[in-house]
User: Which sequence fits this backbone?
């Protein structure tokens, strides 16, 4: 009796360990803006022209595509059912390149070291504006290619540079695996989510935060489109 019951328990567990969640689906969708998107403002480079002026600078804070899709919306589950960690398969990093933060919105895992890179070879200054993590304000001189930083708690941290006033970016500290960003057309996909009901959160630096209930099927996908009202 005992043997049979143990076997019955162990086999599904082994299968789950070997193949991931027994049933998991994808969350897909498109985020749109109901209003008319402003044309991104050109940014005047006022300093370190030889390096910063090599590339065009325009405001990346509100980018809407021709069919109203919103780029750079962070989409994440608020209430994960497992403790899988966020990973892109490489060491998390944030670059300062052409006096821009690249990428503009950088999703990194909580508690893991992030390489802050200075590709420009000029003085930058990393100034963070967190809610849940300690703030820091550190110069990164031209000879300092890489500076490590760790963000322990889930957060949305604005990053600025005190040397170049136009530089602005965001580090989104993910407490779990189920985070993504919308592409230039506003589309997103969170793959391999264990089946069940969730609250899905949408955050955009100008349009703010919204949420929506979704139920992830055991196979296939659920569509979770969102439209931000005009402001
Ligand atoms: Cu700078």
Assistant:
């Amino acid at each position: 009796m005992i043997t049979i019951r143990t076997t019955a328990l162990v086999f599904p567990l082994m299968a789950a360990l070997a193949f991931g969640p027994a049933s998991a689906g994808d969350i897909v969708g498109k985020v749109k803006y109901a209003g008319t998107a402003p044309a991104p403002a050109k940014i005047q480079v006022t300093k370190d022209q030889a390096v910063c002026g090599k590339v065009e600078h325009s405001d990346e804070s509100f980018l809407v595509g021709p069919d109203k899709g919103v780029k750079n919306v962070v989409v994440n589950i608020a209430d994960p059912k497992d403790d899988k960690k966020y990973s892109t398969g490489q060491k998390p990093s944030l670059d300062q390149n052409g006096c821009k933060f690249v990428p503009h919105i950088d999703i990194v895992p909580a508690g893991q070291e992030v390489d802050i890179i200075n590709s420009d070879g000029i003085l930058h200054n990393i100034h963070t504006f967190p809610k849940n993590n300690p703030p820091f304000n550190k110069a990164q001189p031209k000879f300092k290619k890489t500076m490590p930083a760790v963000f322990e708690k889930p957060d949305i941290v604005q990053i600025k540079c005190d040397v170049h006033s136009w530089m602005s970016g965001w580090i989104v500290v993910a407490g779990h695996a189920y985070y993504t960003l919308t592409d230039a057309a506003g589309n997103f996909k969170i793959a391999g989510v264990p089946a069940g009901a969730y609250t899905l959160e949408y955050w955009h630096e100008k349009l703010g935060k919204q949420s929506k209930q979704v139920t992830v099927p055991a196979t296939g996908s659920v569509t979770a489109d969102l439209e931000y009202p005009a402001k």
Q: What stands out?
A: The first strand starts at residue 24 and ends at 33. DSSP finds two helices and 17 strands in the chain. Confidence is low (pLDDT under 50) at residues 9-13. The helical segments are 2-19, 49-52.
